[in-house]
Amino acid sequence: MNHPEIIKLQKYLQVKFNNRAIDVRPRNKQNDSVEVYLGEEFLGLIYLDDEDGDKSYNFQMAILEEDLDEVN
């Protein structure tokens, strides 16, 4: 993904989740995905799907069971 595309994704997520601390960063040696952070905490990956000229972005976030225990 190019820089303008990354900025658009970041602004979209910041507005959608009403949180300016969301940061979208390029990945080393990967052009089809970016990393998503909340401050310095890694949240997940966004993958580009450009099949048949219909571009979409898939956000993948893993939630560990131990992370769920932190909120209880």
Summary, kept brief:
The chain is of the alpha+beta class. The chain has helices at residues 3-16, 65-69, and strands at residues 22-27, 30-38, 41-51, 54-60. The protein has one domain (3-69).
Task: Identify the notable features of this structure and list them briefly.
alpha+beta; 2 helices; 4 strands; 26% helix; globular
Describe this structure in words.
The protein has 72 residues and is of the alpha+beta class. The protein has one domain (3-69). It has two helices and four strands. The chain has helices spanning 3-16, 65-69; strands at residues 22-27, 30-38, 41-51, 54-60. The chain has a four-stranded antiparallel sheet with strand order 1-2-3-4, with helices on one face. The N and C termini lie far apart (37 Å). The relative contact order is 0.15. The mean pLDDT is 94.
Radius of gyration computed on alpha carbons: 13 Å
Provide the succession of SSEs.
HEEEEH
Number of strands: 4
Number of domains: 1
**Helix vs. strand class:** alpha+beta
Question: What is the mean predicted local confidence, pLDDT?
Answer: 94
What is the CA–CA distance across the termini?
A: 37 Å
Quaternary structure type = single chain
Q: Helical region count?
A: 2
**Strand order, sheet with most strands:** 1-2-3-4
Indicate the overall shape.
globular
Indicate the low-confidence ranges by residue numbers.
none
Helicity level: 25-40%
Task: Report the portion of residues in β strands.
Answer: over 45%
Largest sheet: 4 strands, antiparallel
What is the secondary structure topology, with strand pairs?
Blueprint: H1 3-16, E1 22-27, E2 30-38, E3 41-51, E4 54-60, H2 65-69
Antiparallel strand pairs: 1-2, 2-3, 3-4
